[in-house]
Amino acid sequence: MEYRRGKDQESDDISQKDVERLDLRSLSDTAATSNLSTAGGPKGKNTWKLKSIVTLALTLLTSSQAILIVWSKRAGKYEYSVTTANFSVEFLKCLLSLVALYRTWNSQGVTEDNRLTTSFDEVSVYPIPAIVYMVKNLLQYYIFAYVDAPAYQILKNLNIISTGVLYRIILKKKLSEIQWAAFVLLCAGCTTAQLNPSSDHVLQTPIQGWMMAIVMALLSGFAGVYTEAIIKKRPSRNINAQNFWLYIFGMIFNLVAICVQDFGAVINKGFFHGYSFITILMILNHALSGIAVSMVMKYADNIVKVYSTSVAMLLTAVVSVFLFNFHLSLAFFLGSTVVSVSVYLHSVGKPQQHNPPAQQK
Amino acid sequence: MEYRRGKDQESDDISQKDVERLDLRSLSDTAATSNLSTAGGPKGKNTWKLKSIVTLALTLLTSSQAILIVWSKRAGKYEYSVTTANFSVEFLKCLLSLVALYRTWNSQGVTEDNRLTTSFDEVSVYPIPAIVYMVKNLLQYYIFAYVDAPAYQILKNLNIISTGVLYRIILKKKLSEIQWAAFVLLCAGCTTAQLNPSSDHVLQTPIQGWMMAIVMALLSGFAGVYTEAIIKKRPSRNINAQNFWLYIFGMIFNLVAICVQDFGAVINKGFFHGYSFITILMILNHALSGIAVSMVMKYADNIVKVYSTSVAMLLTAVVSVFLFNFHLSLAFFLGSTVVSVSVYLHSVGKPQQHNPPAQQK
């Protein structure tokens, strides 16, 4: 069992100092942020730095996330309700957003861009990603009637393609032909790296399983791309304020999920029943990952997010060799090679090259 | 058991008419041939057509070659001496070259470029590929002390990389960065497509096995690239005359191999002992493939050859599904995807785009 990754957010992520620095930047880099791929000069350099920091943070957090999951599996079965853990993640993200906002208000005062109050127009779209994720998670219960777990792991890589396609359609951003080729390679490489003797089951997936997998990939891709659209719509808007509203709806929908799925268990055994040290670590990690995803949406894009989480998957496997004596397969090496080439092609294949110039004094 | 692919050659390949047409072109397209990548206009168009025909021929012949091998395996064990079959292939290629030359002499008369007699300077380099192949085949007997058969199949893909590297070093031809990336992908994709449950053995290959595999890949790559250098050295020279001399040395070295390995069997049971209908088909196929390789060397290059044989490998698997009820694995689909993207990247990544202009009348 693995809980869904939160959509977005931010707050005292890497450290609270970083967040304040990021806040200042988000104010000064408005123009550059909204036009990342062509930004140059000092502003472009800052944006590029910011983009690198949040991407790195997301990669590291996602890797440690998977390692925590392995660790918790080793430690025994999950005894807690997954829905309460999801709610705790949303709550923690909300709390961290508020803390970060509070610090911003103290240093810069309350402005139009960082105030918490909002218009109905701004906030009305915020529940949509949460609803889409809920539908996707609901489908997840039904797909296992047609697909087994290893095959599902493989099918999840369709997310990569759906994200690319929806990114193009919804955000109307162009990828070059070479970047498209790189994206197909990323999907093939990730799948190759995950190959194991039971992977071939996926070829026996019935048509219903395929359809559901494709619908789930589209929903997941849509939620990600739509969140980016929401966050990028007002580049000068403080990301913590945006996240606060996103996470409020995340909390509401998870509350509904608790009532539907785990109401009895929560009433009888308590909200935090079965929580262990690892559970708390996982909740913390998911909250920080969610914040990192949000940062990547604000300062980079969904494509960077997909690359980041894919590279994280490979990093996890390498780290697991040392931590858990994992055995790397030839398929893993081949997949990693393909993913590496894909990352390279994505960067050289930019429609317009973005080289932050060296600072001259 | 699979006999080594001949180096190069030509003659009445696709049909004798084709060869004559090719001959005429090889005379008229001298300049274009020696500068394929930048050729344009009618000459460029002819060259491009010629390149496509020989590439297609090589791909189809290589595919059917592998299918014949599967067929012959199904039909039972090989009873014949592989060395005599190799000699027969060289002999047949030599004979076909002579027939093609004879036809050329009849139609165009004997010229400086198509006469059989040659200078010591020209012919002195011709034995080198044959010697290199012999050394490589010799090593093949020893590598199995360190590497098992499935691992060897995987390691053979190192040929792709060694050919690219030696092509760059020896022929001093440039590949763009994207084409290099495509080449790495080709190697990874071919290997992925061949993955099976026992492929992971390759990771237990001892260092001696790796060293030998690398040396063999370098020798094989060197023989290919060196042959291209020999054939391209005098673009106006008739390819059949060049092949005649190449194959003469092929015959000589295979004669030595017969004496060393199968002398007893040949004396006792006869030269053609154990030959079946399939054996003859395979010899015919190898001879024609050898000729196609030679054509590709003359009118295209080693890179095209590598792509052609890689695509043939995939084609073979697909055809085998229908012929032998083969089961395609997920790894095969992933590998094929990567190879397809590689072919695409190789063509879009050309240092200087070569678009044969549509003929205007």
Describe this structure in words.
Two copies of one chain form a homodimer. Chain A has 361 residues and is mainly α. Chain A contains 15 helices and no strands. Chain A is globular. The termini of chain A are far apart. Mean pLDDT of chain A is 82; it is low at 1-41 and 353-361. The A-B interface holds A 154, 177-178, 181, 184-185, 188-189, 191-192, 195, 197, 199-200, 202-203, 328-331, 334-335, 337-338, 341, 344-345, 348-349 and B 154, 177-178, 181, 184-185, 188-189, 191-192, 195, 197, 199-200, 202-203, 328-331, 334-335, 337-338, 341, 344-345, 348-349. Chains A, B: It is found in: Golgi apparatus membrane; Membrane. Chains A, B: InterPro entries: EmrE-like (IPR037185), Nuc_sug_transpt (IPR007271). Chains A, B: The chain crosses the membrane at residues 53-72, 84-102, 123-144, 150-171, 178-195, 207-231, 243-263, 275-297, 304-324. Chains A, B: It is a multi-pass membrane protein. Chains A, B: Belongs to the nucleotide-sugar transporter family. CMP-Sialate:CMP antiporter (TC 2.A.7.12) subfamily.
